[in-house]
C-alpha cells in the first residue's frame, strides 16, 4: 500500500500482539494454583483477572502505581472478586512465581512466525515493550522470536513507558530509524498506536477482539493482514 512505501523499520509490541499473553497467563496461573492447593476454577478466574490486569497496567502506564503494586493488586483484587481469601504472604509468593514461570509458556498469536519470516528480509524489525526487563528477554528467547529482533527496548530501560514520546524517540535513535520510515504495530490503541502517531510514526492497531473504538486509522484483526497492508 502506498501509505507504507517509505517504511524501512517496523516496531512491534510484544505482549498481546505477538506473544499470546492471556493464553500463557492462564496456563501459568493454572499450574501455580495447583501447586498452592488453591481450589480455583481457572476459567472463572481469568474472566475476572484479564480486565483487572488491563486496568492495573493502565494505572502503571500512567505512573499511578508501582511495578510491585501492579503485581500485587491485580491478584489481590482478582481473588477478592472471585470470593476466595488469600493472605498477603501467599499473594506475594504467587506473584513471584508467576513472573518466574510465565516465560515457560510460549504460545504466539496465529500467523506470528509467518509474518516475521515474511518481513525479516525486507525490513528491520524491532520491539518496544512496557513489559518487565526480567521476563521479556526470556519470552522472546523461549518462544523462538529472538532471531528476528536485534533490538528490543523495554520501558524500564528507557525510563518511560509507552505512550510517552520519549520511548519511541529513543527506539528510533538507537536503531537509526526516523518517523518518516517507521511503523509501529501494537494492540493498545493508547500506548502503541496513539503514542507512535504522536511521535510522527505510522501505526497499525492490532485488534483481534474487535474493540468498539472511534478510530479511523489502520486496524487489523489478524497478523497476516499486516503483510497485506505492506504489499
From TrEMBL:
InterPro entries: HAD-like_sf (IPR036412), HAD-SF_hydro_IA (IPR006439), HAD-SF_hydro_IA_YjjG/PynA (IPR011951), HAD_sf (IPR023214), PGP-like_dom2 (IPR023198), Pyrimidine_5'-ntase_YjjG (IPR052550)
Annotated source species: Nonlabens ponticola
Record's protein name: Noncanonical pyrimidine nucleotidase, YjjG family
GO MF annotations in UniProt: 5'-nucleotidase activity
SUPFAM superfamilies: HAD-like (SSF56784)
